[in-house]
Amino acid sequence: MSDTGRLLRALECRACCAEVAPDHPVGTCPTCGHTLLARYALDHLDGRNWARAVSGRLPTLWRYRELLPVAQMESIVTLGEGGSPVLPLGEVPEAPGIDVLLKDDGGLPTGSFKARGMAVAVSRARELGLSRLFVPSAGNAGVALSAYGARAGLRVSVYLPAATPAAMQRGCRQYGATVVTVPGTIREAGEAARAAEGPGGGFDMSTLREPYRVEGKKTMGFEIVEQMGGALPAAIVYPTGGGTGLVGMYKAFQELRELGLLERPPRLVAVQPDGCAPIVTALREGSPRATPAPSPTTIAPGLLVPAPFASERVLEAVRATGGTGTVVSDPEIERAVGRLAARHGVSASPEGAAPYAALPRLVAEGAIRAGERVLLYNTGSGLPFVAGTPASG
Fold this sequence. Notes:
Rossmann fold; 6-stranded mixed sheet; globular
């Protein structure tokens, strides 16, 4: 067996300060039920030498393996995830004077950024001896878990809101997962999943309810810093449902700062639909945690998360970087999907198009300013949302 060189030291809870050993399967904090986050022995790593070593490795997220939780190379379950491009969009008419770029995770395995989190979480689950995994999902996470579970030889159950695009439902089934559709939103899917799977020994892979999906999402931040170097964006505009990506990028920036590889992180900007905006509402009200959105609705299924778990960590990520949040309407999202395709050749899901839709509002609100460089994050391909598209994962 070959060692990855990982420096994982412990799992820690920011809510109650408990520490948990990472050598057995664990979901949330056993003391208080909040999110556990991985902590690494960064003092054992020379930042500059590590960065040079990383630059010579294959362009997948596993190039950052010392700061990922998997101990043995043989445990890694991979489909080649990571290394998505940063595309210059130039000056967008709706945001004059802004240098706009887009990081495009739509080309990752299974078609979205969910491949990052599931690659790492499934690899660690297999390493820890788990055999049955389940997840409530709006679509993309379910497809990703199904694919990586198949790759790892693990049993997977996916609980989807009944309105999930048919291509995503078919994709999960093609990868061999058991699919259960549930009336309502991801909140109801989660309740059904935990009631059905927990007593039978299934392991919950939900957003921020296990410690390792966020470690995969963390690689978004690592890649942005590595790819853009000294020309980092002033802000990263991110479509926010459960918010794991914001937590992950913030965690990456913290670790890079401690290693001496980053001076100041970009501002993190959360974008949500106006029909389901618990994080943006909490940011505007100065609340320490999000209140569930009443009567949630949006055309973007991945953003239909009325009650994000561990919203405290999501809000912390935005506030600690000096960021903010804003909302967009469903018609604005629809127009942004078309404009990204017709103007820039970018296929974006409704979720991935939300940051583009938000540009005019962010300019009007002063959240981004003329002369700044801004990175939009496209979290997924728009192909599953095209009528008649065959399922491809």
